[in-house]
Amino acid sequence: MKYASEFRDPAAARALLAAIATRAEALGATRAKPIHIMEICGGHTHSIFRYGLDRLIHDGIEFIHGPGCPVCVLPMARVDECVEIAEQPGVIFTTFGDAMRVPGHRKSLMQAKAEGADIRMVYSPLDALELARRNPGREVVFFGLGFETTTPSTALSIQQAAREGLGNFSLFCNHITVPEPIRALLDDPDMVLDGFIGPGHVSMVIGIHPYDFIAQDYGKPIVVAGFEPTDLLQSVLMVLTQIAEGRAAVENQYARVVPDHGNPVSLAAIADVYERRPSFEWRGLGEIESSGLRIRETYRAHDAEAKFGIGYGAASRNVPEIAGCACGSVMTGKMKPTACPQFGTGCTPEMPLGALMVSSEGACAAYWQYGGARAAAE
Length: 378
Fold this sequence. Notes:
Layout: H1 10-26, E1 35-41, H2 42-50, H3 53-56, E2 61-68, H4 70-73, H5 76-86, E3 91-95, H6 109-114, E4 119-121, H7 125-134, E5 139-146, H8 151-164, E6 169-175, H9 179-186, E7 195-198, H10 200-206, H11 212-218, E8 222-224, H12 229-244, E9 250-252, H13 264-273, E10 274-276, E11 279-282, E12 286-289, E13 293-295, H14 304-308, H15 327-331, H16 363-371, H17 373-377
Parallel strand pairs: 1-2, 1-7, 3-4, 3-5, 5-6, 7-8, 8-9
Antiparallel strand pairs: 10-13, 11-12
Helix pairs in contact: 1-12, 2-16, 8-13
């Protein structure tokens, strides 16, 4: 992070804000008729609020928060299945910390842990592998969750478990992909989107070309962006420039990190271990074809769904959202967190109703963390 200060330079940010204002005014953007730009990634949402970009940017630009928080889009049924696995005798269930407090229909993983289940927070699937080595008489399950960003690490862990013959290590796979829900949003007649800020970390793995359909099929500009304030402001300006010039393309603002064609080693590991599910349920979006990954037959010995009879052979579950919880509407950009009647009252970080308030990439968490009382009052 030696050079992070260059991407937070106030003078550079002011220059970009001025250029955005000039371009927005030329396009006729106003508060009453804004240009809607969706930041797909929850990490971008947090950066926008952390640095106050939502307040600094021209009134004619409105950020729409997209479904780029993998914890948030996970349906409650999958949380219930995590708890079901974790409560099996002899299981050590491992997970990243931001999934611990996501509510299921019955309870969260944190509540299951308090009731006696052996649930442990880890920093990497490699930590879960080490637990499997140290506990050969117990089943160690890692909660594989995330977009293409985290998929390579779990794929490499499964490959390593297979090489070592660690039959007591398995993955509860909930990996999902970014392009498919974006297509679903663009097909929604109620969504009004003028352009996209593309995810940086996901694109580091898959490159920029999986987003070609956004420009080619829907005529919308998309700019893959970094996470610093000047990254985001430059990306907004690049989107506005495309709109002003009457073109739509996939552009890479984050070229210092994102290769256009992705990371070949990561992509090879993903292709070896995973295959597409026919469909996967997303909170707020419903079933989306080919939007989830599952473990290939070759590595089925390390598949927790097959090992515990969940998913493949089990009957599908339809678990309704908690009454009054608007996570689905917020997740799909149809509602701001502050418009949810539960925000700051029935749903707080201490007592969450939905995942968006507890995830490190959730939109509600961003509003609360950086807006606090002001956001609740609004």
